[in-house]
Write a structure and sequence with these properties.
about 250 residues; alpha/beta; Rossmann fold; seven-stranded parallel sheet; globular; binds NADP nicotinamide-adenine-dinucleotide phosphate
């Protein structure tokens, strides 16, 4: 029986850590070829080399910053150059920003928007240009913050709301080309993004399941939306939260 991602080529922006890395591992385990993009060249190469050990010839990486103009296009071009096609774009990179609006600077707002909203938009544009006649899958990581009124999260929430809006509109716009566009919104997930106090009981108390999510528990939803099984699902944001935020 063929694996779910046999013959598929994916670009995972933010694939060197956390949910993105769990997604990369899942794509590779199920037969896919994957290009990983991230900023920290040393971590990226270490992750890439480790994955190459088990998946010879099916993983490559490209170093860069999605917040810089032209970089998302370069990531897509590098993927097509390396593996000859593109079928799946996952954008998992983000700038996790928490600050009272009265203390927020224009430069910080700009940086968060460039990373979390403009970057995914440019990545989606580049991928939709690169997808072939078979169509494609675009999955962007959002956050439940997009739809909750938690203090000090206005800038981050605004950018996550933007990617959810992007998914709804592009789902309609790109449907005639068999391209689906969806978001996954994790709750509190045990990754480096969560910072030092991962075991803080005040955090886990907020989760009805009583614990943090594992990156793999979010990646499994990303993988479904990236697969052929999800061809009838588009324009949606799927929460993977253990009940957090309900
Ligand atoms: N963890 C949570 O509790 C949680 C909750 C809600 C939503 N989310 C969302 O889930 C997604 C994944 O988060 P995570 O927890 O897996 O984070 P993570 O472990 O910190 O991983 C983030 C990844 O993105 C890359 N990245 C960050 N900024 C980048 C940039 N400007 N250009 C290119 N790559 C960049 C990082 O590598 P470099 O630093 O080397 O670039 C890394 O590979 C994010 O969109 C986040 O907003 C997470």
């Amino acid at each position: 029986m063929p694996a779910r991602f046999d013959g598929k080529v994916a670009l995972v922006i933010g694939g060197s850590s956390g949910i993105g890395l769990a997604t990369v591992r899942g794509l590779l385990a199920e037969g896919g070829r994957v290009v990983i993009a991230a900023r920290d060249a040393a971590r990226l190469a270490a992750v890439g080399q480790e994955l190459l050990g088990a998946h010879q010839g099916r993983v490559a990486w490209v170093n860069g910053d999605i917040s810089e103009l032209g970089e998302a296009e370069r990531f897509v071009a590098a993927t097509v150059t390396r593996f000859g096609r593109l079928d799946i774009l996952v954008t998992s990179s983000a700038y996790n920003y928490t600050r009272a609006i009265v203390d927020t600077t224009e430069d910080e707002i700009d940086a968060v928007i460039r990373t979390n909203a403009r970057g995914p938009l440019l990545a989606a544009r580049a991928a939709s240009r690169a997808f072939g006649p078979e169509g494609g899958r675009i999955v962007t990581l959002s956050a439940t913050a997009a739809r909750r009124g938690r203090p000090h999260r206005s800038v981050y929430a605004a950018t996550k709301g933007a990617v959810e809006a992007m998914a709804r509109v592009l789902a309609v716009e790109l449907a005639p080309r068999k391209i689906t566009v969806n978001c996954v919104a994790p709750g509190l997930t045990d990754t480096p993004m969560l910072g030092g106090d991962r075991d803080d009981p005040n955090r886990t108390r907020q989760v009805p399941m009583g614990r943090l999510g594992r990156p793999e528990e979010v990646a499994t939803v990303v993988l479904f939306l990236a697969s052929d099984d999800a061809g009838w699902v588009t324009g949606q944001t799927v929460d993977a939260t253990g009940g957090y935020g309900l």
